[in-house]
Amino acid sequence: MTATDRAKDLAIAAAEAASDKLAHDIVAYDVSEVFVITDAFVLASAPTDRQVRAIVDGIEERLIELGAKPARREGQEEGRWVLLDYLDIVVHVQHSEEREYYLLEKLWKDCPRIELPETVTGSRP
Q: Where are the transmembrane segments (predicted)?
């Protein structure tokens, strides 16, 4: 079983929205083989708490346009690690320090990546 098309579309839209708000190290994983509660995880980082919050706002705005609202949101006040649970996907926006400390990618290293557009994965000037 692989992530649904809806989950992939939401993951790509979330990644694009994060990129628009200058998030870095954006990746998406198809976790449907290891989790029954969601199909995809999206990870993004930012160097400041304020930027983490801006990225989260941008993701929520973009996904609302696609008819998706988060079922759960955690960490918004602290702005260090915000989790947005859309059921089909879970988005983690982390302060760069938290990202380096927790290394979530290691947990899902065996899961296939969801291909993201080059506008998301390309390097910034």
A: none
Is residue 84 within 8 A of residue 91, CB to CB? The reply is yes
Residue given tokens 């702005």 in the structure block: 79
Topology (CATH level 3) of domain 5-116? Beta Polymerase; domain 2 (3.30.460)
d(CA 26, CA 51): 14
Q: Say what angle helices 49-65 and 5-20 make with each other, to 10 degrees.
A: 140
Q: Is the pTM of this model over 0.85?
A: yes
Tell me the pLDDT tens digit for each residue of 19-59.
999 999 999 999 999 998 999 999 999 999 999 999 999 99
Find, among 38, 39, 17, 41, the residue nearest to 27 by Cα.
41
